[in-house]
Amino acid sequence: MSTNPNPPTPAPAPAPAANKWQLFIEIAEIALGVVKGAVPGLGVGLGVAEAAIQIAQKAQAAYALHVGQPMDPSLIKLESPIE
Amino acid sequence: MNLQLKNRNCAALAAVLLSLALLAAGCSSNKYVVHPGSVSSFDSQAYDSLLVAEAAIDAAKAQYAAGQIPAASKDLLNKAIGIYDIAQASWHTYHDTAASASSADVSKLQAQLTDDLNQLSQAISVFEQSVGKKAPAAKLGKL
Fold it and tell me: What is the ipTM of this complex?
């Protein structure tokens, strides 16, 4: 029995767990989850749905603004809690 | 169809389109552009995640101040902010030391930062539940 001269190459290592899209998906789900709750009878108003959509839009805009730009660590700031 | 129902349908459509746009953006980017100045691709992607989370937190704070999200979401938003602060400190430590640290230390820092970012993602998901539904207390225990 001959050996295979071209053994399959090992699969590449998985991407780091800090998946940059994971947060996007979570944030998009905020908008979807809220809008699902905005149907009549479920007690969440249209204003709440619009608020969630705006949160998602701000987050998406923040990413788009910095694509390919030099890293600026000063942008990653501490956030204070709501009083 | 009355105007109110029409507006609700428009909001739902906008949310669906937004979600699809975000997902499509993620799927269509075959080559990720690493930020110049990062110490690794992991460093760059963690930076992106924190930028997005910070923008979302800032927007949520503004919405809360304007009374546009439920008052009951305050504690969950503060929980997410606390976890974000932990993650941003982990990222600064990783970014500042990874280039000169031993591979063992880099692995340890990377594992810590990964864990912090996963917790941040979970906190955002719980916050989502509090905004979109009426039972945030049941989800708090998972954090």
Answer: 0.72
